[in-house]
Write a structure and sequence with these properties.
This protein has about 400 residues and is an alpha/beta fold. It has twelve helices and 15 strands. Helix 8 crosses helix 9 and helix 9 (about 295-320) packs across helix 10 (about 330-350).
Length: about 400
Amino acid sequence: MTGRATVEAGRGADAAGGTKASPAPNSRAGGRAAEEPSRATAAGQHAAPSAGTPASAPAARPTPPDVPTPAATATFAADVGGTWVRLRTGGAGAGVERVPAPSRLRQPGRAVEELRRDMVELLGGAAPPGARAAVSFGAAIDHVTGVVHGSAPLWGSATEPYDLMAALRARRPDVTWTLVNDVTAALADFAAGHARPDTRRVGYLTVSSGIGLRIADLERSVIPVDEWGLQGEVGHLAVACPPELAGLVCECGGTGHLASLAAGPGFVRVAERLGLSDAANVTRWLPGALDAGEPAARRLLGLCVEPVAELIRTLWCLDPHLDLLGLGGGVVEGLGGHYATELRQRLATPTSYAARGYSTARLDDRLVLCGPGEVDPLRGAERIDQWPPRVAP
């Protein structure tokens, strides 16, 4: 969940350099949405069963019996990521403010307790009086209770549960808070623009300062979660990697995780391991080096994309009804066509009889590489209460 000092420049700055992206082969401007306008139908045509809802807490302040409880007086939304926090009051069309996130990525020396306190102060201070507030939050969140289980970009290796919903309510009891994971919010926005009436399951994978996945079953109109209210925390799964990349450290403190190779900070770690000069600034160098066809840049991109390709092969092997998968986030958007071409080439290459290589037509139909601004977790947070799929533990 992220992306602000320049209004909607957003997520491209969160990882792969914030440079202007080459257009992706099937971005909205030139591909899938233009060729298949029927996919622009929101997934709301599937009936919603009775199930859980995203963590939402109405204001708890008592009201005297003879005084009616006032309706919310403003619409407020926030999108919290490891690098930026975006804020909007007034709904779609209103201006977006972008401020630095109080996070481990930006302030590595600060205590987690201080970072959490600053985050609550930031959100609580920005919400107007009596607002209905929707927050897209870049962390592993229990979507039923609003408890955060961890966020490597925000809080590093801290894993003790933190009741963010309770903290927000205590700070601003006059506000009605709805809290969702940023990838859930992005999925809601992606599905609204791309899912078609016959889409059975739709997913969205973000590759930015962290990596996360969310899948919704549109036939049942649910977002399945486990007993902790979680789904799709794939960035912290261990992945196979070449020997020269073994043991790369993840922001969460683990080693060999998907995010440690393929997220924005992972590009830096891989560049360091490969011995590239000025590896700390690789995200600024990489787009131009790829434009120039430099072999070192091509190798770096391939090593960082392959774990994502393997994840997608696994998803489609395990769930043949995952009809539509979107990819976005700062890395995907910042590298644009280079990332899309590399990923599609790898998915087209046979690896076994279980993954025989996907045709161009199949990839065009099932995979969308999103361009800058095409999917917005801030907009998704504003949509979430109207989106039919409900959380189902």
